[in-house]
Amino acid sequence: PLGVELNNYIHIDYHGGLGVSNMMLTHYFYSLDEGTLVMNLPFIKDTITFFKHHYPKRDKNGKILFFPTQSLETYWCPLPVGKECVTNDMPQISRLYAVLDRLLL
User: Fold this and answer.
1) What is the DSSP string of the chain?
2) How would you classify residue 32: left for phi > 0, otherwise alpha for psi between -120 and 50, otherwise beta?
């Protein structure tokens, strides 16, 4: 179908926006260019909002449950999505922590 990635290696690789958001924040912290930060904040906000809505499930402690997901191209989630998919992949979680930590500074 149009707009659906069928490549098993990357079909649920969603953390690219977090990488770009992190680079935008890095640029700000090095340049202190507030105009560029203001211009980039909507993208960063929308990236965080995507994760909030795309992964609505929580574990028993109230933490986001990232499933289905995959850990880059190493542990990928075959189609159709099933229980063999990765849960809480480290690349996605570490990028989310990095972006949120910088936003709270």
Assistant:
1) -TT----TTTTT--THHHHHHHHHHHHHHHH--HHHHHHHHHHHHHHHHHHHHH---B-TTS-B---SB-BTTTB--PSSP-TTSBSS-HHHHHHHHHHHHHHT-
2) left
Q: Tell me: the pLDDT tens digits for 29-55?
A: 999 999 999 999 999 999 999 999 999
Q: Which residue from 104, 80, 103 is spatially nearest to 18, judged by alpha carbons?
A: 103
Q: To 5 degrees, how large is the angle CA 70–CA 27–CA 66? A: 20
86, 89, 91, 92 alpha-carbon torsion, rounded to 10°: 100
Task: Name the token pair of 67.
Answer: 């499933």
